[in-house]
Amino acid sequence: MNLIERPRRLRRTETIRALVRETRLSPDDFVYPLFVCEGEGVRREISSMPGVFNLSIDELLKEVEAAGKVGVRSVILFGVPDKKDSAGSQAYSEDGITQRAIRAIKREVKDTLVIADNCLCEYTDHGHCGVIEAGEVLNDPSVELLARTAVAQAEAGADMIAPSSMMDGFVTAIREALDASGFEQIPIMSYAVKYASGFYGPFREAAQSAPQFGDRRGYQMDPANAREAMREAELDYEQGADMLMVKPALPYLDIIRAVRERFDVPVAAYQVSGEYAMIKAAAKLGWIDEERVALESLTSIKRAGAGIILTYYAVEMANRLS
Ligand code: PBG
């Protein structure tokens, strides 16, 4: 018999395609990143990220509520403080902008899961993710401040801590500090594999966190390295990270897949600002179909193995999926 294989049989109609579809996105997969700033009534659009804003706490509450209504029930917060200093003290001050925002959300929109990004770069005047001495980002003193920040975030009511500084040993330090303060139930989603990426450009405008000298290659990973990604993931897993994140997402699908196969904890991926901005910009020029490309990117990220996706498209996509 000379039968030819006919995979097209299962592609003939949308109904049959839906039946055999292997990867489905749901609003439950998404974490919505939000930038909170000082003031009242502030809703300042980021020029390189159309549809993304610096929000004062009152506006933030509206955004979180609206997200919840379309099924996006997890947010990750980035603080954009007015005052920055060399030690990033607003990151761990009880009345720092992020802590106030966490308290407000937990008071007003109770069932939303609030994840606190844990880093110093938005709070330091030099824009690096730790403290500096003689032009170097010091590791252990930075980790101490990050642990203090985690406790301040948990005290404000954060449901999860997401350390993103790429300092060595940050998961151990944060876990110990949380436990010592009675927060042993608060999970850690570690930015375990974070590359020194050009795709973060628009974020640095949004968070006003561009380094004032040098770059982040001394602590974030070299985009060329995959074995090293396994080592980073292993270290954070052993230190007690409850979830592992890979960032950026689309240029690193191989890494997402490898982390998924090797570690039995939830894997998250961050579709970062530059990934979002590229889609927005090409769509604005009429060069691509935005909705289609956004959906395809997010589906690819999930197909590669990320069950959780941090994305600026969270609300737009949730609308489209419902
Ligand atoms: C650092 C941090 C960054 C992002 C999330 N956390 C930026 C950086 O390392 O410069 C980038 C996210 C994005 O580009 O969307 N705290």
CATH evolutionary superfamily = Aldolase class I
Q: Which architecture does the CATH hierarchy give at level 2?
A: Alpha-Beta Barrel
CATH class: Alpha Beta
Count of DSSP H/I helices: 11
- Overall mean pLDDT score? 96
Number of domains: 1
How would you sum up the global shape?
globular
- C-alpha termini separation: 46 Å
Q: What pattern of helices and strands is seen along the backbone?
A: HEEEHEHEEEHEHEHHEHEHHEH
Briefly note the structural class of the backbone. alpha/beta
Helix content: 25-40%
Largest sheet data: 10 strands, mixed
Q: What gyration radius follows from the Cα positions, in whole Å?
A: 20 Å
Written account of the structure:
The chain has a single domain, classed as Aldolase class I (TIM Barrel, Alpha-Beta Barrel). The protein has eleven helices and twelve strands. The longest helix has 17 residues, at 140-156. The protein has helices at residues 14-20, 57-69, 97-108, 140-156, 170-180, 201-206, 227-238, 253-262, 273-284, 290-304, 314-321, and strands at 30-37, 43-46, 49-56, 74-80, 113-118, 132-133, 136-137, 160-163, 189-194, 243-247, 267-271, 308-311. Helix 8 links the parallel strand 10 (243-247) and strand 11 (267-271). With 322 residues, the chain is α/β, with parallel strands linked by helices. Strands 1, 2, 3, 4, 5, 8, 9, 10, 11 and 12 form a ten-stranded mixed sheet that branches. The mean pLDDT is 96. Bound molecules: ligand PBG. The site of ligand PBG has 10 residues, from helix 6.
Task: Name its key features.
322 residues; alpha/beta; TIM Barrel; ten-stranded mixed β-sheet; two-stranded antiparallel ribbon; 11 helices; 19% strand; globular; binds ligand PBG
